């Protein structure tokens, strides 16, 4: 009888055939057997390799039953990094017991499916690389042995999805072949005994529920024992910031006041508790079937009421003294948490951004707070925008003596700062370190990193070098900062069980710098150190604590470069280059005569059918820099502009400098994230993810997420552009532009629901699940007429018109189990 066994060397949903690699039938047969032996009589076997539409076959046999039939080598196949490869044996009329093993090439993890089939993820490579696999088997009941080899050539990673079209749909749209799972949403319970979120404005207990306006996020791995496990892709802690509120949806008919204009205490408390940070456990039930664990012991809310500890040079300063903490060492809570940073020792850095408007002061004139302040205080308060006469949401108006509410009243009322909350604004605007694995730990406000409208805090840590933290200050014409630790980073500290102590070691002592971008493509880091920072005409610095509490004034004093809303920072794990999103600027912030090489555009992007003018830099750009000597402690760097946002439909070459098309045009880059270096997305040429928070292009599309494979600083050229203002006047500006975008290097991966912002992004270490935050869908709607119904609208075309939207996280997976985007 004849035993028939078929070998398939490779299968892939994205069939990617490199025919030049295919050997001839003769070379396959000759690899192990001579032609004469293959044609010998006796017990016969036929083996074949199938890849795509190509079939190769060879016959072999031997009348020596002790050797049995031998499976001839399979076909040579090609794929690219990150894709799923399937090695399989197709058997007819016999039972096969065998296994696949790797013979050569970069090591991969073979996942055994059954006796005939195994899969693996193609590894990251810098050039075409062959991987050889062998299959060994026992066939039938006669103990006959068989073996065969297959070769797979892996090529460097490429973007492997069709670009998502711009759209105004009320769903999260992803490429074909991908699936979306909605994860934690506004109001979801984080403790036992809480009811499901009613989503009608009646819910309370937000100190035990997911907060609103989910922003930056990170997945911290958990092992089966509940200990930290950075390699876990199936269980982890999702830490997410909660920046602000769609306040109209938190109450039955929106926020209210009493006859005296005071806010009800219950409403104000709900709003306050919906800010801050959440920690929730995520778990994969198998094959990336994700859900969250509402009663996990790790679940935690950090709110504006959570006790905080100040550390670093400003801790204990009189500038931080309040009635709650007369010695200036403690505080309560964190607010307006925007982007983040992750330390090597697995703590989360949450960043306090637009906090200034939450505080009440009053106007000028005799007896007012302004009159009671010193000249220096007035300058500092104005520079940070602490000028509201009510405070966001009016929390200080609640009729109570509870300092949880009265502290939002920053007026000078008592004899000194130890008896009121005039300094409460100085307690915010910091980078806050949180240990996600210890729900009982006290977060630390790290004052050495300066106080501003912190957008993010990207940590660059290289063993044997000083640690650096790169930070944007998210307001128009603000600055890019860098903190460099005094202590050299030791890799062993990354695994410390005392994580907060590592923060004490590296984040409390060092030098804070601010960036100056020169017209020649070089730049300097200017130290903000007492004695080296000159006084301003309106402000004299008293000590280092003063410089850190008022680092915007210090940056003004050293003449740093004002930027177009510096937001997220991210570092390329392969090159060490630092990227910074500059979201946008308006005509007042970036007039025709106010451009410079690093912020070079002034133009109009007309919006909507009315062609509403949008002058300035409404679409934003992304700048990048490379430190001198590739050392993050360097005091000089080179820079260029990686990408310019633009509407490709109506932008000329002086606006659409990066050559964007309908498949990759974008506006207002905000979130920025390089893929983890633990998978093919983050190796060799790491994939960069770009999220948008747009108002300029939203007549054509909702906000979006793009995937990019960037080059390096200097891959483009010097360029002179012509700007134009609303009067028709023109001016030229020289700059340095990176290489133009192409379909191979930049594509739109996701479009969000109506009126949302795409913000917050991370992935599992294996790169097979991508977590993305969808913030404030339907932000312009009302309780009676919500303008979005997401996430209920995801997969539900008939959702009720009264369903209120909720910020939420989505988990995105590739249907074939491969690495996202490749």
TrEMBL record:
Q: Which InterPro entries match?
A: PhoX (IPR008557)
User: How is this protein named in the record?
Assistant: Phosphatase
Species of origin reads: Novosphingobium fluoreni
């Amino acid at each position: 009888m004849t035993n028939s066994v078929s070998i398939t060397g490779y299968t892939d949903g994205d069939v990617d055939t490199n025919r030049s690699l295919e050997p001839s039938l003769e070379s396959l047969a000759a690899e192990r057997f001579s032609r004469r032996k293959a044609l010998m009589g006796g017990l016969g076997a036929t083996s074949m390799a199938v890849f795509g539409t190509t079939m190769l076959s060879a016959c072999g046999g031997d009348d020596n039953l002790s050797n049995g039939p031998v499976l001839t080598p399979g076909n040579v196949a090609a794929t690219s990094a990150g894709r799923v490869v399937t090695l399989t044996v197709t058997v007819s009329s016999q039972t096969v017991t065998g296994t696949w093993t790797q013979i050569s090439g970069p090591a991969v993890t073979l996942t055994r499916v059954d006796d005939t089939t195994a899969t693996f993820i193609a590894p990251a490579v810098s050039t075409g690389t062959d991987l050889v696999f062998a299959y060994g088997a026992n066939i039938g009941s006669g103990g006959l042995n068989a073996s065969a080899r297959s070769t797979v050539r892996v090529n460097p990673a490429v973007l492997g999805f069709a670009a998502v079209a711009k759209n105004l749909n009320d769903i999260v749209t992803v490429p074909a072949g991908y699936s979306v799972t909605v994860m934690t949403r506004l109001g979801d319970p984080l403790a036992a005994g809480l009811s499901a979120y009613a989503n009608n404005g009646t819910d309370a207990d937000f100190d035990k529920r997911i907060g609103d306006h989910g922003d930056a996020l990170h997945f911290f791995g958990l092992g089966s024992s509940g200990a930290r496990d950075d390699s876990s892709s199936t269980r982890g802690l999702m830490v997410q910031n909660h920046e602000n509120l769609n306040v109209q949806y938190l109450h039955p008919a929106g926020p209210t006041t009493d006859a005296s204009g005071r806010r009800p205490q219950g409403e104000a408390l709900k709003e306050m508790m919906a800010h801050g940070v959440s920690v929730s456990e995520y778990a994969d039930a198998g094959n990336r079937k994700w859900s969250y664990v509402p009663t996990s012991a790790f679940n935690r809310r950090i709110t504006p009421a959570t006790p905080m500890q100040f550390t670093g040079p400003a801790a204990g300063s009189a500038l931080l003294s309040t009635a709650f903490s007369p010695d200036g060492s403690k505080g309560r809570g964190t607010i307006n948490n925007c982007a983040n940073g992750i330390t090597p020792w697995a703590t989360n850095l949450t960043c306090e951004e637009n906090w200034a408007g939450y505080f009440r002061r009053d106007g000028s004139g005799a007896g007012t707070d302004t009159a009671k302040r010193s000249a220096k205080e007035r300058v500092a308060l104005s520079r940070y925008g602490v000028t509201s006469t009510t405070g966001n949401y009016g929390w200080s108006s609640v009729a109570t003596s509870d300092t949880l509410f009265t502290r939002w009243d920053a007026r000078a009322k008592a004899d000194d700062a130890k008896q009121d909350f005039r300094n409460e604004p100085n307690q915010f605007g910091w980078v806050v370190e949180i240990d996600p694995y210890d729900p009982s730990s006290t977060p630390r406000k790290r004052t050495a990193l300066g106080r501003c409208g912190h957008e993010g805090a990207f940590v660059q840590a290289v063993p044997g070098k000083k640690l650096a933290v790169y930070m944007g200050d998210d307001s128009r014409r603000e600055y890019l900062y860098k903190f460099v630790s005094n202590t050299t980073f030791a890799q062993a500290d990354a695994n410390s069980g005392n994580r907060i102590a590592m923060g004490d070691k590296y984040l409390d002592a060092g030098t804070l710098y601010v960036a100056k971008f020169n017209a020649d493509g070089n730049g300097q880091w200017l130290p903000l150190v007492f004695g080296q920072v000159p006084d301003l005409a309106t402000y004299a610095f008293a000590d280092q604590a003063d410089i850190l509490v008022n680092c915007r004034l210090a940056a003004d004093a050293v003449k740093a470069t004002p930027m177009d809303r510096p937001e997220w920072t991210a570092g390329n794990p392969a090159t060490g280059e630092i990227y910074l999103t500059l979201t946008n600027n308006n005509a007042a912030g970036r007039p025709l005569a106010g451009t410079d090489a690093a912020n070079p555009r002034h133009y109009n992007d007309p919006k909507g059918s009315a062609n509403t003018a949008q002058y300035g830099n409404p679409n934003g750009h992304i700048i990048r820099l490379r430190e001198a000597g590739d050392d993050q402690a360097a005091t000089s760097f080179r820079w260029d502009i990686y990408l310019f946002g633009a509407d490709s439909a109506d932008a000329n070459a002086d606006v659409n400098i990066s050559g964007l098309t309908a498949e990759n045009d974008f506006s207002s880059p905000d979130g920025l994230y390089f893929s983890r270096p633990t998978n093919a997305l983050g190796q060799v040429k790491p994939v960069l993810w770009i999220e948008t928070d747009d108002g300029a292009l939203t007549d054509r599309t909702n906000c979006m997420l793009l995937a990019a494979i960037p080059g390096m600083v200097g891959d483009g050229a010097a360029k002179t552009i012509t700007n134009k203002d609303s009067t028709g006047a023109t001016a030229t500006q020289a700059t340095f532009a990176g290489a133009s975008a192409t379909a191979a290097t930049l594509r739109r991966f996701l479009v969000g629901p109506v009126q949302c912002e795409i913000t917050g992004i991370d992935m599992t270490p294996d790169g097979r699940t991508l977590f993305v935050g969808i913030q404030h869908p339907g932000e312009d709607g009302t309780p009676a007429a919500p303008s979005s119904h997401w996430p209920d609208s995801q997969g539900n075309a008939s959702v009720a018109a009264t369903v209120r939207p909720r910020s939420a996280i989505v988990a995105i997976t590739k249907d074939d189990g491969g690495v996202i985007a490749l």
